[in-house]
Amino acid sequence: MTSINSTRLNSLSTRVSIIGAGKVGSTLAQRIAEKNLADVVLLDIVEGWPQGIALDLMQARGVERHNRQIVGTNDYTDTAGSNIVVIAAGIPRKPGISREDLLKINARIVTESAKQAIAHSPDAILIIITNPLDVMTYLAWEATDLPAHRVMGMAGVLDSARFQTFIAMELGVSIAEINATVIGSHGDLMVPLPRYTTVSGIPISQLMDARTIDRLVQRTRHGGAEVVTLMKTSSAYFAPASSACLMAESILLNQSRLLPCCVYLSGEYGVQDLFLGVPCRLGYRGVEQVLELELSNTEREAFMDSGKLVRQSIEEAKAILKTAE
Ligand code: APR
C-alpha cells in the first residue's frame, strides 16, 4: 500500500519525512504540521498505519485550520525531495528484550531506513531519534555517507527540557525563565551542567543548595525511565517530539538557535570520531557550529566516561551487524 491521500505534495513545498509513524513519529508530524513548518510524509513498515495517522491529522485540519499536507505511506519514493528526514523507527526498550537484542534490531532498522530515505532525498538533513541514540546516530551517518554536519541526534534538547522542568517544579517559577544545559550521551551517563543552568540569568547554585541540585540532576538522568515506570507499556513521546520539532524549526527557518544536540566531534572536547551531545548552532545547512564549553575536571571526566560507553556500544553494534550479515 502506498500513499492514501489523493493530494500530492507540491514539489516546491518544504517537506519533512518521518520514518516510523509510532508515538514519537506521529506526535512529531502533528507538531510540525500544526506549527506550519512543513508538509509531512509519514512512513512506516506497517501497511495502513501511517496512512490512517495521516488521514486523521488531515481531518484535524478542519479544526486547526492549517494548510499543511500530511501523507502516510509505506513507499520511500513518496519521501523524495525532503528537506529533513527524521528516523523514529524501531522498537522501544521494554522488559524481556535484552540490550543486545535492542541494539541489533534498532541498528538494522535505522541503517536500512536512513539509507533508503537518503537515496530519495540526497540533500536532506538527517535527525535520529531512535535509541540508543548516540550509537544509532553514528551508524546512520556511516550508512548514509552524508557530511557529518548534516547528521544529528535528538537528545540534548530533551534532557535539558527535563532538567528545566524539574527546576521549575522545585522553585515554583515559570519554565520560560529557565535555561539548562545537558551534554554527553543520552542515558544514565548524561552530563547535566548546573554551572551552565540559570533562572532569569541567575545561576541555580544561588537559588538551591547542592543537595537539591544533585537530586534534580539524578531525576533528569532518569527522566525517561521515570515515564516508562509510570506508563509501563510505552516510553515518552510528547517531550521527545517537541524536542525534535525545535531542532527541525531551527533548521527550516534558519534560526541559528544554540541547542544541545548529538553531533559529530572531530577533536572538540578532546573527542575524535564520535557523535555526542554538545551545544551547537543549528541552521539551514545543519550543524553550523559546535560550541566548546569550558569544563571543570569533574565535568570533563563525566563527559569522557559517557563517550567511552558510546564508543564501546558502537563497536558492539558493528560486531553484531557483521555476524548477522
Ligand atoms: N521501517 C519503518 N518503520 C518501522 C520499521 C522499519 N523498518 N520498523 C519499525 N517501524 C515502526 C513501527 O511499526 C512503529 O510504528 O516504528 C514505529 C515505532 O513506534 P513506537 O513503537 O510507538 O515507538 P515510539 O515510542 O514512537 O519510539 C520510537 O524513539 O524515543 C525513541 O526509544 C524510542 O527508539 C524508540 C523510538
Task: Describe the 3D structure.
- By secondary structure, this protein is of the alpha/beta class.
- The protein has 2 domains: 6-153, Rossmann fold; 156-316, L-2-Hydroxyisocaproate Dehydrogenase, Chain A, domain 2 (Alpha-Beta Complex), CATH 3.90.110.10.
- Helix content is 44%, strand content 19%.
- The chain has a 6-stranded parallel β-sheet with strand order 3-2-1-4-5-6, with helices on both faces. Strands 7-10-11 form a 3-stranded antiparallel β-sheet, with helices on one face.
- β5 (125-128), α4 (133-144) and β6 (151-153) form a beta-alpha-beta unit.
- α4 packs across α9 (297-324) and α5 (156-171) packs across α8 (238-252).
- 47% of the residues are buried.
- The model has no long low-confidence stretch (mean pLDDT 94).
- Bound molecules: adenosine-5-diphosphoribose.
- Adenosine-5-diphosphoribose binds next to α1 and α3.
- Adenosine-5-diphosphoribose (APR) is lined by residues 19-25, 44-46, 88-90, 92, 109, 113, 129-131, 235, 237, 240.
